[in-house]
Amino acid sequence: MHAGCFSLRVCPRPHPRGAPYSWPRGVRGFTLLELMLTCAIVAVLAGVATPSFRDYLANARRTSQVNALVHALHASRSAAIRRGQPVVLCKSVDGRHCAATGEWSEGWIAFANLDRDSPAVVDPGEPVLLHQPAVQRLHIRGNRDAIIYWPVSRAGTTASFTFCDARGPATARAVIVSQTGRPRTSDRDASGKALVCAAASRD
C-alpha cells in the first residue's frame, strides 16, 4: 500500500519509471477557443472597472483636500480665539511665507499675525501654526489670497474656494466661508449658481 494511504479508492497507482504519463480519464485541458473567450471576458470587465476606479481616486483626492482646507479654516479660527491674537490663513509655496500669486492648490499656511500688519506677512518671531503642502492633479482657486481670523470670533472677510479636476464643473466642489469664519462645503457657489472651472483645470 502507498505510504500514508488508508483507502484504495484514494491511493494513486504507482507510475512505472520511464513509462509515458497519461491524464486520468475524465480530465481535460482548455481549448484555444475557451482561452480566447476567457481573455475577452477579462478584457471587457477590466475596461468597465477602470473608469470607475479612476473616478474613485479622483473623488478621494478632491475630498481629502476639501477636508484639509475645512480643517485649516476651523483650526485657524480656534487658534485666534484661544491665543487672543489674529491668525492668518494664506497661500504658500514654501511653507514659510504667504504667496500673492498662484493657486491654493500650491499649498497654504496659518500663522499668528502678532504685529497685525496688512497685507499680512510672516515676520521673524511669528509662528507658523499649520502647513499644507501642494497637491497634484487638482486646482483650488479662491477669491482671496488670505483669510484673517480675529480673536472676537469672526473672520474679517467672506471667501469662496473652488476645487476642480480634469473632469470639469460636473464634479467640482466649493468651500464657502461666512462672515463668522465658519466654512461649509457645497456643489454650488455662494449665490447658488453652478460652479465654474477654468480651462486650465482640465489638464
Question: How would you sum up this structure, described in words?
Answer:
With about 200 residues, the chain is an alpha+beta fold. It has one domain: minor pseudopilin epsh domain (minor pseudopilin epsh fold). Strands 3-2-1-5 form a 4-stranded antiparallel β-sheet, covered by helices on one side. The protein has a 4-stranded antiparallel β-sheet with strand order 4-6-7-8, covered by helices on one side. A hairpin with an 8-residue loop joins strand 6 and strand 7. It is elongated, with a radius of gyration of 31 Å. The model has no long low-confidence stretch (mean pLDDT about 85).
Features:
single chain; 203 residues; alpha+beta; minor pseudopilin epsh fold; four-stranded antiparallel β-sheet; 8 strands; 26% helix; elongated
Shape: elongated
Question: How big is the Rg?
Answer: 31 Å
Oligomer: single chain
Largest sheet: 4 strands, antiparallel
Can you count the helices? 1
**What's the rounded overall pLDDT mean?**
85
Range of strand content? 15-25%
Secondary structure: number of strands: 8
What is the CATH H-level superfamily? minor pseudopilin epsh domain
Specify the helix fraction band: 25-40%
Runs in which pLDDT lies below 50 for 5 or more consecutive residues are none
Name of the top-level CATH class:
Alpha Beta
Distance between the termini: 72 Å
Q: Provide the spatial order of strands within the biggest beta sheet.
A: 3-2-1-5
Under CATH, the topology can be stated as: minor pseudopilin epsh fold
Structure classification: alpha+beta
CATH architecture: 3-Layer(bab) Sandwich
Order of helical and strand elements? HEEEEEEEE
Provide the domain count.
1
